[in-house]
Amino acid sequence: MSNKPVSEGNNKRDGKKSEVSPAARRKQIIVGVVMGTVMGVILGALTTFWLWVPAGVAFGLAVGAIMKPPAE
């Protein structure tokens, strides 16, 4: 084991959870869905396979839910 001290920064084990406002979370979900829709439309147009659009929307929703919202 190393003798490095544990940082006092934003550690997930501290128990202090940085709460994200519902507006910021909602904005992040919307941004993800829009990005996924654009990606789906572009892939659908390039491949002429329309099922890329719902796949892009699902991908955008997943990414928007996982990504850390921007700092306010």
User: In percent, how helical is the residue content?
Assistant: 55-70%
Helix segment tally:
2
Give the SSE order as H and E letters: HH
- Termini separation: 38 Å
Q: C-alpha Rg, in Å?
A: 18 Å
Structural class: mainly alpha
Q: Tell me the major beta sheet.
A: none
Q: What proportion strand?
A: under 5%
Task: Identify the overall geometry.
Answer: elongated
The tally of beta strands, per DSSP, is: 0
Write down the overall mean pLDDT.
80
Low-pLDDT segments, ≥5 res: none
Protein name: HPP family protein
Keywords: Membrane, Transmembrane, Transmembrane helix
Organism: Leucobacter coleopterorum
Region (Disordered): 1-24
Give a quick set of tags describing it.
72 residues; mainly alpha; 2 helices; elongated
In a few lines, what is going on in this structure?
This protein is an all-alpha fold and 72 residues long. It is built from two helices and no strands.
Outline the structure in words.
Keywords: Membrane, Transmembrane, Transmembrane helix. Residues 10-19 have a biased composition (Basic and acidic residues). Residues 1-24 are annotated as: Disordered. The protein is an all-alpha fold. It has a domain at 21-66. It is built from two helices and no strands. The radius of gyration is 18 Å and the shape is elongated.
Would you spell out the secondary-structure blueprint of this structure?
Blueprint: H1 22-47, H2 52-66
Helix pairs in contact: 1-2
Region (Disordered): 1-24
Biased composition (Basic and acidic residues): 10-19
Protein name: HPP family protein
